[in-house]
Input
Amino acid sequence: MSDIAVDAIVEPKGIEDVRDVVNNHSAVRFRWDGDRNSEVILDAFTANMLVQIYDALKNEKAKENINAGIAKSRLLFLKIVDIAWGGVKK
Output
């Protein structure tokens, strides 16, 4: 995987798991359905970006979709991260 020091392996349930990474200034491995092949390392920098975008959203339906996507699968989580990074102003 990577040389990043990872604090835990977490099955993500939503934005609160992402927020925990920010609050603990850590990195975690997200794993869906206990499948080691679905692991993604989430670092504090990326987590902070996701939380800031989530908190800035005014549309509750969009927030629900993000929460569901984070919890549902690796693919949806990566799409959310990709879209979020694409929206970050340079």
